[in-house]
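Help needed: design a sequence for this.
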């Protein structure tokens, strides 16, 4: 699913029709549509850069898909609002940004997340992970990377499900199981957003970051 060689200037189309664009965070405000600029009119410099880099990468994805450039505005819960017929997702760290977009009808929603490999420190684990996830992380060969992947998978799943359900989720509402370069999402507690897990999740490690993608296909 994800190209093994993704790096900080990847622009590619995955085999299932999801355009992926990655780039360092920088100032791309001159590329924004007027109604996008309004979204950051009172924002600090860091936020202006991450927002404008995200929108620049959406344009790269539109190019890959052969679509005209159009504004990606913001919904009431900060979710990106995609032009008719498109679905996508955006993520940024302090230094890197990623956008994914698809026009495939059979893909109902897609989410993406990028995290620093060393950003999910052990003091955060009990707030984010279940007991089984913590055990799995501790027993893995690289606990910091495994923690970053599982955290990122939760964020990615949240962004993927939000446009379909409109639901807020807590980190402990879902439990992630890694399998090779893929992950499964299980539901804990009462906040079960789908009857069964119909989503696919994939992850990839880079020398400093991890990247996760989650998508849901019609009829599973
Ligand atoms: C929105 C959230 C998932 C990520 O935000 P973040 O920490 O700023 O991290 P990222 O940079 O990876 O993602 C930001 C992007 O997510 C997108 N986003 C924000 N809210 C969203 C939502 N409700 N649905 C889908 N995408 C959303 C936006 O495109 C945003 O970038 P932009 O404002 O520049 O357009 C997180 O802050 C949040 O609110 N989490 C809720 C709880 C949670 O994550 N639960 C997980 C358990 S399943």
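Sure. Designed sequence:
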């Amino acid at each position: 699913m994800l190209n093994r060689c993704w790096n900080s200037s990847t622009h590619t189309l995955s085999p299932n029709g999801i355009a992926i664009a990655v780039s360092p965070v920088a100032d791309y405000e001159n590329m924004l549509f007027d109604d996008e600029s309004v979204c950051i009119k009172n924002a600090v410099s860091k936020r202006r850069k991450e927002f404008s880099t995200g929108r620049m990468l959406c344009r790269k994805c539109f190019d890959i898909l052969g679509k005209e450039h159009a504004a990606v505005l913001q919904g009431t819960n900060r979710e990106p609002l995609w032009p008719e017929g498109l679905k996508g997702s955006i993520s940024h760290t302090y230094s890197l940004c990623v956008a994914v977009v698809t026009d495939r009808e059979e893909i109902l929603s897609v989410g993406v997340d990028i995290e620093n490999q060393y950003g999910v420190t052990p003091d955060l684990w009990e707030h984010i992970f279940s007991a089984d996830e913590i055990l799995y992380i501790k027993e893995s060969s690289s606990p910091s990377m495994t923690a970053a992947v599982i955290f990122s998978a939760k964020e990615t799943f949240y962004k993927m499900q939000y446009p379909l359900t409109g639901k807020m989720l807590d980190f402990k509402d879902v439990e992630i199981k890694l399998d090779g370069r893929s992950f499964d999402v299980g539901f804990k507690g009462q906040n079960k957003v789908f009857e069964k897990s119909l989503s696919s999740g994939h992850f990839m490690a880079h020398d400093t970051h991890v990247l996760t993608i989650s998508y849901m296909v019609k009829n599973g």
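The chain has two domains: 11-112, 117-197.
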